[in-house]
């Protein structure tokens, strides 16, 4: 894959038939005994981008394999692995992030990140993790508040690296600053726990939804991101409400009303007042048909 910056083109979802097949595969992978992070991320990319066909999915996996093959054979302990990944991905092949990447949907799509060598912290971390894993490194994702990084090793020997900053190896003070900058709170050791692959995917889809919320004309993106999130075995119940609102926004008043009523039934068990408000929204949606 080339490392130059391609001309910007807005990705658009595939045909309904292709989308249905991708979602079936996404659901099956998410419910498998050991969900494969790169596969799930690439299926998200295919749902976003109609130009990503089966050949493109295979090409992206081959590129991850190729990059892993460029790493030295078992360079040593956690710090040696972190340095080896930084030298390969951050320095030799130029993977890193910039503030402008937060404005691009492509920054949340693994196949685009592999081509552009740019992306959000979590997607660059996926590249680091998948390349390192293929090479046998003891690697995991670390979901620091507001800034995803990768960890090599575990416990007291764990070494953190920031792929968004080209794989810079972090000191304890560096990690503390990242957390304080994002939350104003001190670093809690619980924040260093390995991130579950499905939590990583949900966080990626949350980023896609946030991108779309800022662009009302791309409610199509918000809708497929919500619908993929709902296919994960564990997800916030409120996503059903968000999907209903999007359906109404996009003119599917009946479908939105049905979803709102179903969500109201769920909410009624814990908050009757909220349930009644949602039922009112469902009635308003149906009234839009008149």
Automatic annotation (TrEMBL):
Residues 18-34 have a biased composition (Basic and acidic residues). Residues 1-34 are annotated as: Disordered. It comes from the Bacteria. Residues 63-206 form the Protein SirB1 N-terminal domain. Belongs to the UPF0162 family. This is Tetratricopeptide repeat protein.
